[in-house]
Every structure is written in structure tokens, then in C-alpha cells.
Specification:
2 domains, 2,3-Dihydroxybiphenyl 1,2-Dioxygenase, domain 1, nine-stranded mixed β-sheet, alpha+beta, 376 residues, single chain, globular
Length: 376
């Protein structure tokens, strides 16, 4: 059964400060930037490409609150990652972690068993020194250790502030997203514990909570999940794997269409989920919906809350409570043609949990989408 939150804090043996940015590898970075700007309310702040003397890829840096997304696409079939689009489609390539010492973090991670991808390097331009090094995690997803303490540029060498002629800031509409709450990875059946151990042994994370197939199941499908976090609690990575069931779970569907393990969704925090989700609906973002009966049962299940339940029902926002408070959450539909990457919007009112009470309603909503796609 699902265990309660583990409050035992382990020593943060690799001092990871925060998630620096998430790098997406996409088919057309310019068009993807337009989508995240106009649908999710990000500001496009920097660009790298042919005009900035970058010959092999184009990149757009998007920011909202403390969230930074970097959208990258190849400028030639010769790009070393061009084939990943055939395998994965658009998706998360790298979760970059801000660290105090790039060289120490990389060498220590490799010593503990991580596979090195790019050794430490210091990139310089007129704005200072940008340090980075990369290790591999599940599938071909990577973590890049970043230190920009000596770098004063807008993002990294090769990136320049966005030309207003390309993206005018006058029409930018922030929707109130503040920070990344957690990033969820899907791995193959039987591999969840292996990757939990990786984060524990290599990066000094500890297990926060565990959900088994009795917690996350419906009549047809099931999955298991463990959540790991770093010593400060600022970085949280749930890891999912499929469980035996009558039909194919959403994790199986993801693994099939993504072509292996990868990032399933990114949860983004807001201080006012009603305003944020309302603004995203106006921007034509599509969200999963649960039946109205969910809200008829909500007062008895979660007790008193500050929000108007009718408003939550109109927007499709879910609510769950634990011993420390309650939380509100909603999930987008997949943001590309493949049923892979999607996003969560979350507001925490004391709760540190991940919405266990919503799992059944949520996964039944996902199964309805799978049935429409013919992949259940």
C-alpha cells in the first residue's frame, strides 16, 4: 500500500541547489516557442541560431516565474541528436541542475556509478564563465550540472536577448506559473527500484513516498510509483513503472509511443490555480476532465477548503488532502500528437502529497482518452 510521507532527511551529499532549466528537443523550436508563449504564458527571452553564429541547432529560452524552458531543434540532419525525433517525437532531453561545483558534482556522480555524457567544461564569452557537465539517467534523458555564478549573460554563451521583431513582448500574457514542483519519469516494468536507487546512491536523494498498484489502479490498468527528493526538498522526481493489469496502462502507452523511458509530465506550481487555469483555458489549453459526481463527493472527502467547489468543477480542478493541508491540481492533455508529454498545474495549501485521493478519477479520465485513441 502507499506509505505516508517520509520526513527523514538525509545529508545532501551532492549540494544540488535547484532545477536550473528543462531542455526540450523538438522538431521546430520556433513554432514550439510560439505554443508555450501563447498557450502557457511563457516569455521568450533569448535565442540562439544562425543569426548568433550557431550552426547546428536553434534554441529559444522561455521564462515564467522561476521556470526556465529551453526549446531546441536541429538545423541539419547531421546534428548528433536529430534521430531522437524519429524515436521520441518532441520531448524532454535534459533536466539541468544548478550546483555549487560542477567538476566535483560530475566526478562524484561518476564515481558513484553514473554514466558520464559530457565532462566538465567552462564556456566563456563577454558575460563571463558558464560551467556545465552532463550525466545520463533513465532512457536517454540526461542531467546537466550547471554553475552560472560567474556568468552574467541572459542564459548561456551563444544565446542573445530575443529580437522584438521575432517575438514582440507587448502581447505577452503571464498566467501565473511560479516554479517547477516536480518532474515525473516513466520507466519500464521492473526498473522503478533501479532508478530510485540511482538517485539515492548517485545524487544523494531519499525516498519521499511510495504508491503501489493498489493505490494507482482502475478496473483495467495499474501502475506503481516512488517519489525521490534531494536533501533540501527543492527537487522532486516521481518515478513510475507499469504494473500487471487487464489492459495497457498509460505508462505502457507512453513507453510505446515515446520509444522507451522518458519524462512523462512536468508539474508547475501557482499561487492561484483558479486564475492560472482560467487564463490557460482562454489560451486554448486542453485539460483532462473528471465526471461532475467527483465534486458531489468532494466536501465529505477533503473537508472545508477556501475555494468555491462549483468554480473548481467548472474548471475541472481536483483537490486532495493530507495531514499537513490540501492541494489542488489539474492535468493537461498531451501537448503533441504522440500521447506522451503533458503538464500539471498545482497549488499547495500546506499539503506535500501528490494527490493520492485523485488517482482513481484521474486515471479513469486518462483511460477514456486512451479508449478514444484505441490504445487502452
Amino acid at each position: 500500500m502507499g506509505r505516508e510521507l517520509n520526513n527523514t532527511m538525509t545529508k545532501d551529499t551532492l549540494p544540488l541547489r535547484r532545477i536550473d532549466h528543462v531542455r526540450f528537443f523538438v522538431g521546430n523550436a520556433r513554432q514550439s516557442a510560439y505554443f508555450y508563449r501563447n498557450a502557457f504564458g511563457f516569455d521568450v527571452v533569448a535565442y540562439a541560431g544562425l543569426e548568433t553564429r550557431q550552426k547546428y541547432e536553434a534554441g529559444y529560452v522561455l521564462r515564467q516565474g522561476h521556470i526556465t524552458f529551453v526549446l531546441v531543434s536541429a538545423l541539419s540532419w547531421k546534428h548528433p541528436d536529430s534521430q531522437r525525433l524519429i524515436q521520441h517525437g518532441d520531448g524532454v532531453q535534459d533536466i539541468a541542475l544548478d550546483v555549487e561545483d560542477v567538476t566535483y558534482s560530475y566526478k562524484e556522480a561518476v564515481r558513484r556509478g553514473a554514466e558520464g555524457v559530457s565532462p566538465p567544461q567552462a564556456l566563456e564569452d563577454e558575460f563571463g564563465v558558464y560551467e556545465c557537465a552532463t550525466i545520463r539517467t533513465y532512457g536517454d534523458t540526461t542531467h546537466t550540472f550547471i554553475n552560472r555564478d560567474r556568468y552574467k549573460g541572459i542564459f548561456a554563451p551563444g544565446y542573445k536577448p530575443m529580437d522584438p521583431a521575432r517575438y514582440s513582448p507587448s502581447t505577452f500574457h503571464n498566467v501565473g506559473l511560479k516554479a517547477i514542483d516536480h518532474i515525473v519519469g516513466n520507466v519500464e516494468e521492473g526498473k522503478m527500484n533501479e532508478w530510485v536507487k540511482f538517485y539515492q546512491d548517485v545524487l544523494g536523494f531519499h525516498q519521499l513516498v511510495h504508491f503501489d498498484d493498489k493505490d494507482i489502479s482502475t478496473e483495467y490498468s495499474a501502475l506503481m510509483s516512488k517519489v525521490v527528493e534531494n536533501g533540501t526538498g527543492r527537487i522532486k522526481f516521481p518515478i513510475n513503472e507499469p504494473a500487471k493489469a487487464k489492459r495497457r496502462s498509460q505508462i505502457d502507452e507512453f513507453l510505446q509511443f515515446y520509444g522507451g523511458p522518458g519524462v512523462q509530465h512536468i508539474a508547475m506550481a501557482t499561487d492561484n490555480i483558479i486564475e492560472t487555469v482560467g487564463a490557460m483555458y482562454k489560451n486554448d489549453v486542453s485539460f483532462l476532465r473528471v465526471p461532475r459526481s467527483y465534486y458531489d463527493l468532494l466536501p465529505a472527502r477533503v473537508g472545508p477548503i477556501k475555494e468555491d467547489i462549483d468554480v473548481l468543477a467548472d474548471l475541472g480542478i481536483l483537490v486532495d488532502r493530507d495531514d499537513e493541508g490540501y492541494m489542488l491540481q489539474i492535468f493537461t492533455k498531451p501537448v503533441a500528437d504522440r500521447p506522451t508529454l503533458f503538464f500539471e498545474v498545482i497549488q499547495r495549501r500546506g499539503s506535500r502529497s501528490f494527490g493520492k485521493g485523485n488517482f482513481k478519477a484521474l486515471f479513469e479520465a486518462i483511460e477514456r482518452e486512451q479508449a478514444v485513441r484505441g490504445t487502452l
